[in-house]
Amino acid sequence: MPTGIGMSDTRVSRPRRECEGSRVMPFGAVGADRAAGPADDARDEASALPWIEEADQVAPRDARELSKLFFDRLRTLEEGTPEHEYARGTLIEMNLTLVHYVASRYRNRGNGQMEDIVQVGTVGLIKAIDRFDVSRGFEFTSFAVPWILGEIKRYFRDTSWAVHVPRRLQELRAELARSQEKLACVLGREPTVRELAADLAVTEEEALEGIMAANGYAAGSLDAPHDASDDGEGPHTGRSLADVMGDPDPAIEVFEHLHALAPLLAELDERERRIIEMRFGQEMTQAEIGVVLGISQMHVSRLLSRTLARLRTCLLTSD
User: Fold this and answer.
1) Is residue 48, in this structure, part of any structural domain at all?
2) How far apart (Å, rounded) are the C-alpha atoms in residues 41 and 86?
3) 175 CB-near residues (< 8 Å, 6+ apart)
4) Cβ atoms 265, 280 nearer than 8 A
5) Three-state DSSP class for residue 50
6) What angle do CA 109, 112, 115 make, to 5 degrees?
7) Which of 166, 181, 153, 180 is nearest to 213 (CA)?
8) Would you write out the chain's pLDDT as a tens digit for each of its 319 residues?
């Protein structure tokens, strides 16, 4: 069973009845040989539906006509009764062709798992059947297709992205793709970020955010082979992408700290800067610093502690 889908099969179970050698027979006629009271007669009259042995094999044209009959009867039946389950299950099976029709549009999307797409489309079909009101005069087909399509689109929205991206950025990415294609035809070249932003009436920062979000749609494998040339036509080295990826440089963190500390050091007075330079640059002891400055080692310790505390506070505030 495909992962994440709560249905094991697109066929829907329904109460079985004796067919007496016929594929289609009135549902109310089943069990007519038993004694029937007034309540049984009323129920049989309300649920006089044809018994369809293989509802999923009914031709689409016949399914449309039979669906009208079943919907008329469905609203008169009590929910949870065998008659209601039969009518509802038969409607689902007869209209599975709608699910396959809509799902066929997405045959080349995702991982190619058509079974997953059909099953989520069937969920939309079931929701459409439960919400359809035959008294409004609409065709069930025109009512059901948007429900099926909505479930399938929701499935792709929730599962297709390799990295979770907010829906706002997913929609912006789609708009950017359409705008880029349109502007490329008009301009004869690839549009800039500024031109894309102007066309969509968004800021350049929002456009860049949408472009960056597109990187989360698909993920590459670290085990993918790595070729010497970018076009893949060079000699095969037998190495994977993970083999040629660099490790984080530990000196980067030191550089970032020094870069953030430089303007704070410039704000210190001359004596404080000298103490910091002698203590950490020349690695002198506090006693040696005291001799150079003509002050006690205790005074040097207090000055050093106060200066370091101020630098630490300012550094954390700037972060």
Assistant:
1) yes
2) 18
3) 200, 210
4) no
5) strand
6) 115
7) 166
8) 444 443 434 444 444 343 333 344 444 444 434 344 444 443 454 446 777 777 777 777 777 788 888 888 888 888 888 888 888 888 888 888 889 888 888 776 655 578 888 899 999 999 998 888 888 878 888 889 999 998 888 888 777 666 677 778 878 888 888 898 999 999 899 999 999 999 999 999 988 988 887 777 666 777 777 665 545 555 556 777 777 777 778 788 888 878 888 888 888 888 898 998 899 888 899 999 999 989 999 999 999 999 989 888 887 776 5
Task: State the number of CA atoms in the 13 A half-sphere of 192 facing the CB.
Answer: 5
CATH code where residue 179 lies: 1.10.10
Same domain, 60 and 146: yes
Mark which of 159, 186, 214 sits at the end of a domain: 159
- pTM value is 0.44
Domain of 236, in residue numbers? 167-244
Residues 89 and 14: their CA atoms lie apart, in Å, by 6
3-state secondary structure of 51: strand
Between CA 140 and CA 129 the distance in angstroms is: 8
- 199/304 same-domain check: no
- End position of a domain, from candidates 186, 218, 244: 244
Which two tokens mark 82?
A: 């065998």
